[in-house]
Design a protein that fits this description.
about 250 residues; about 80% helix; mainly alpha
């Protein structure tokens, strides 16, 4: 693929990924890493995502209802994400056969099917103090291996009983911490440098454009429709990862 077509391919990828994130609050790294994996290594794709992830999740956090309360409630999980990501540093560069991405996709599909059947997962307040760090560490390791931040953090956050806007904000907080933790590992491995950071900044423009359109749609749909879109989006993302891994 020549340079011009590669640029168009990357821009279209981030436009689509930003749109999905605007609608359901997640999906930017899942879609981008999966599609960009066609033309580059997973570590390179993850490095390109750094700036779009930071800015889009910052936007997602800023438009939420109560950041302080979210941070107080989620800090054990967020600390665990950092520990797990740093403990798994280097796994993304070592991934050759796509097995980590395959199992991530399978888990997403199963969780989405449970959600679409209206089964309700609930985490009681008394469990959060010990379960949060465990979920965070597991999410961190998965992030280090795949460059994708969704499991098991997303099911855990959804099980806390947050409303639509609170959930989207909580997802943004989780993802921005994951991005920062992963960036440290990418810097250490040399996958992220000044040139890559500049290219990542350019990828922000189509990501923001897509997210803006997606956010407009999310603001116009009901809570029940959002829930349907949320789980249907997870099902589509998981199915895509499975097909991408075995194809």
């Amino acid at each position: 693929m020549d340079t011009q077509h590669l640029i168009l391919f990357i821009a279209a990828t981030f436009l689509l990924a930003g749109f999905v994130k605007g609608v359901i609050g997640l999906g930017l790294p899942t879609i981008a890493v999966g599609i960009l994996g066609v033309v580059m290594a997973p570590a390179q794709a993850a490095a390109l995502l750094v700036v779009p992830n930071l800015i889009t999740n910052g936007w997602q956090i800023a438009t939420g209802p109560g950041l302080k309360a979210i941070l107080i409630r989620l800090w054990p999980m967020l600390a665990g994400i950092c520990v797990g990501t740093w403990a798994g540093a280097g796994l993304l560069e070592q991934q050759k056969n796509g097995s980590a991405t395959l199992w991530l996709g399978v888990a997403l599909v199963l969780y989405a099917l449970v959600g679409l059947k209206a089964a309700k997962l609930r985490v009681s307040p008394g469990m959060e103090a010990w379960l949060g760090p465990v979920i965070g560490i597991a999410t961190g390791v998965a992030t280090a291996a795949t460059g994708v931040f969704v499991l098991p953090a997303v099911p855990y956050l959804q099980a806390l009983g947050l409303d639509k806007d609170e959930l989207v904000q909580a997802l943004g907080v989780s993802f921005i911490v994951s991005t920062l933790a992963l960036s440290v590992g990418l810097l250490g491995s040399g996958a992220l440098d000044a040139t890559v950071a500049w290219h990542s900044a350019l990828a922000l423009l189509p990501a923001l454009a897509g997210m803006a359109v997606g956010t407009i749609i999310r603001n116009r749909i009901s809570a029940s429709t959002f829930k349907l879109c949320f789980f249907a989006g997870l099902l589509a993302l998981g199915s895509y990862l499975v097909v991408r891994s075995i194809g």
